[in-house]
Amino acid sequence: MTVTDLVSYEDALAAYDPVMGLEVHVELGTKTKMFCGCSTALGADANAQTCPTCLGLPGSLPVVNATGVESAIKIGLALNCKIADWCRFARKNYFYPDMPKNFQTSQYDEPIAFDGYLDVQLEDGEVFRVHIERAHMEEDTGKSTHVGGATGRIHGARHSLLDYNRAGIPLIEIVTKPIEGAGERAPEVAKAYVAELRELIKALGVSEARMEQGQMRCDVNLSLRPNGTEKFGTRSETKNVNSLRSVERACRFEIQRHAAVLSSGGTIVQETRHFHEEDGSTTPGRIKEEAEDYRYFPEPDLVPVAPSREWVEELRATLPELPRLRRNRLREEWGVSEHDMQSILNAGAVDLIVATVEAGADAAAARKWWMGELARRANEDGIELAALPITPEQVARVAELVAKGDLNDKLARQVIEGVLAGEGTPDEVVEKRGLKVVSDEGALGTAVDEAIAANAAIADKIRGGKVAAAGALVGAVMKATRGQADAARVRELILEKLGVEG
Ligand code: ADP
Ligand code: MG
Ligand code: ZN
To answer: Is the shortest distance between the CB of 235 and ligand 1 below 6 Å?
Structure first.
């Protein structure tokens, strides 16, 4: 089906009610894998981080990574889930070359966390509750690279390469209950849910949850039912969607596609689908009409996981403030609109501004520098704001120098430029580049006298009452002082010397 076969979004929603299910996989940031001691660091040579256990060699035995379990419990608690008293891992049996054991160690009917919810805030401020079915522990597979085809997919490839460094890295899969009642806002709810979950995971410190690096990926299940009916329609499952924008687009596309199929009398096949960034479309993957039989059975080589209630309560006590509540608190403290707060969040500036304020800057100044000059530079360099070679402490120092009147904005921008260029701390850049507001009244007075003398005609106009003409003289003084004068003070001095009222 091509994009032209779609029903318009409005028409789709006029006839049908969307139901969604979101399955999110999060790769934990543990130092070692889930069931062996192999490193999880990125960038190693292919297959350098493997051992008999994660390669599934005969006789090898797995051991559970305690930090992995701890992270899973923290995620479960933050999602308001119940934490199992006792649960087991299970073998999910299937063959694929990226999985050398021929089974994935996962959890089946005994997840570590279940029955929770996450409240997400929509753009208009409304809070939508997404119910969580379960969060369970499992492991990642290796990575296949298909060589020789045009698309990088297995079809048409000549051979495939396998890298098992990722095999066995801990994953937490978080599955929602069917999300009903979102209506036309279903794509927005899906995006807001994944965004909120990502913020939560980051706040818990259990993963960096970088979607672009595959540390967090989402399967979008979607079905439509005729408006006013109860029974769920057949769902499609768009796999491995890896950006917030794509989650929203995939959901929107599937609504329009399902509506097109259903309204022309067709039936939706239960299948997985691939999402395409280029045009936001999806294409069929595997048919999934009957539940696959993975022959799940309890993992005999691992002891059950039985977290004590004391431990669970200890972990509960370490939970950070929920990102949504923290954002609302900061928004009030900073006195910014919902919209501005959203931009700050999108720019990845929340924590940077918080740290800059903690280092002594006032919130408005911190926001101004991070969202202005620094955001522009990060954008130019194609890097994240946090990756700029300047610290919140340094930004706070620049703001302090401006507040004290030692720098004006123009000079402050030069200081920031110097810090980014590796010329040292703000004070060192000020020193080296000789960037200080000329506040020496004597020097300033001389510069003003010179400007008046050099621009006699303008000076006369000002004396005659045309105060607006003072701008030209201010400009001349600023030029003469290489921008290092306090423009407001210069203006005062000019008017004073010419004997007119400002
Ligand atoms: P599978 O393993 O086949 O992906 P899961 O039960 O793990 O099945 O996940 C299915 C997801 O889709 C869950 O989030 C579930 O709530 C949701 N879901 C189930 N049925 C429907 C449906 N008819 N329409 C939309 N979402 C659904
Ligand atoms: Mg699924
Ligand atoms: Zn290993």
So the answer is: yes
